[in-house]
Amino acid sequence: MFTKTNSNSVFSLSALKKALFLICAAPLAVMAQEWPNKPITFVVPFPAGGGTDAFARPLAAQLTKQLGKQIIIDNRGGAGGTLGASLAAKAAPDGYSFFVGAATMQSLLPCIQTWITTLRRALFRLQ
After folding, report:
1. Dihedral angle computed from the Cα positions of residues 92, 96, 100 and 105, in that order, rounded to the nearest 10 degrees
2. Do residues 66 and 79 make contact, with C-beta atoms less than 8 angstroms apart?
3. Do 119 and 94 share a structural domain?
4. Within 13 Å and on the Cβ side, how many CA atoms surround 49?
5. CA angle 90, 93, 95 (to 5 degrees)
6. 86 and 45, same structural domain?
7. Residues 14 and 74 in one domain
8. In terms of domains, do 20 and 74 share one?
9. 3-state secondary structure string, the chain?
10. Are residues 94 and 57 in the same domain?
11. For residues 22 and 82, what is the distance between their CA atoms, to the nearest angstrom?
12. CA-CA-CA-CA torsion sign (120, 122, 124, 127)
């Protein structure tokens, strides 16, 4: 299939060896990067002292011990958790910002907002 002397071949054996070397060496370059090398941020979409915050703080303390890097808790309460979720969604995708929220809140909120909008439209039609 591949020969050393056939120059008409689409792939030469030396090119195949180079490509195989690059494919095998690429993960080593990624593995050489240390994580974390800067503080990690937990974005909590509720004010301090709430249930989600009470979950995030012990988690952050334990991870700080294990990773050796500070974990910052950024409480961004407001709009039913939408402000914090929006901030986390717009954070740089570098692996240093995490959203700590309730799955039920994030899945139900769009449905509730749609229902409220529909209810308002129906009420205005009645008047």
Report:
1. 20
2. no
3. yes
4. 1
5. 125
6. yes
7. no
8. no
9. CCCCCCCCCCCCHHHHHHHHHHHHHHHHHHHCCCCCCCCEEEEECCCCCCHHHHHHHHHHHHHHHHHCCCEEEEECCCHHHHHHHHHHHCCCCCCCEEECCCHHHHHHHHHHHHHHHHHHHHHHHHC
10. yes
11. 44
12. negative
> What is the residue-level pLDDT of the chain in tens, covering all 127 positions?
555 555 555 556 677 677 777 676 666 655 556 888 999 999 999 999 999 999 999 999 999 999 999 999 999 998 888 899 889 999 999 999 999 987 776 677 777 778 888 888 888 876 6
Q: Is 22 in the same domain as 45?
A: no
* Short-list 76, 70, 65, 69, CA closest to 101: 76
Tokens encoding 66? 């294990």
Total-model pTM: 0.63
Which residue has 């890097």 as its token pair? 69
Q: What are phi and psi of 67, to 5 degrees?
A: -90, -25
